[in-house]
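#help-structures
NK: newbie question, is this the right format to request a structure? protein is Arginase
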Amino acid sequence: MKKIRLIEVKSELGAGTRGASLGVDALKIACLNKGSDYFKRFNAVEVPNFNEVMFEKNLFPHAKYIDSILQTYKRISNTVEQTLELGMFPLVLAGDHSNAGGTIAGLKAAYPDKTLGVIWVDAHADIHSPYTTPSGNMHGMPLAASLSEDNLDCKVNEPDAQTLFFWEALKKVGTEQPKIRHEHIVYIVTRSYEKPEVYLFDKHNIKNFTYPEVMAKGTEQVAQEALRRLQDCDMIYVSFDVDSLDSKFSKGTGTPVEVGLNVAQAKDLCHHLVSHPKVVCFEMVEINPTLDAENTMAQNAFEILEYTTDAIQNRLAQEGQTTPTA
């Protein structure tokens, strides 16, 4: 049976609020408090980070710390690629959402000829480029980097040559070509975005299952419809940002947004998504315990993580039973 490998990425270079680097440890504390053996059960590897550069002056206002984020992308990509080559399922626990660009790069590096679909469960669209970003925070850019999308039609910034040098390099981590196509992204409960992102949604007819739609259809149907939209893809990656939860449940994250999922909905949604045989990677990001005195966010996130992991394990066990032995 294929085994799950935990990939811990404590980088928080892409976030606007400090503290997401502590998210993985907050999950471990929640695990201990629950009396679970989760972190004993799985092989884990930690990707070294460059968080120390945050003590230095940022030189790239339209893509903060992009030089170190490029190195982080490469390390994550190599670890994800190696995990897949070892025949293991990469379950990524990361700091801020910029790290997802490295995960996507690793999936494509391992399977360059396979078409990758992305299900992005997140309050935010994360499809800005240095040309369109209102903040310069790179956790708003991983999908644009993966798409090789500058969105020059909506340009508001004039990034300098050095920023653009690193941005071009970022697009080429894992594979030289764009790693995903616009039509192969499905958003779920995304509800906080800027005009340049809406422009791309409309231009490429990108689907977002809004929260009212989730309420009307239920999480199982939304999961099935999201997967169906990606039926032409060879493999699917699910990225879960904890700010997809309603701000009542997600105080311990850098950018909480009202009107989102509750914990039970998130568990059910992730369960149905990862049970699909094409899902090759699951990622959880943006837990920030410094914003949350009771560690409630991590406790909620751990509940979702444990439930989702069980679904992955059940699926892998079934696949192992049905796969003919050589």
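mod (FA): yep, format's fine, and the tokens are attached above. The first helix runs from residue 23 to 34.
NK: thank you!
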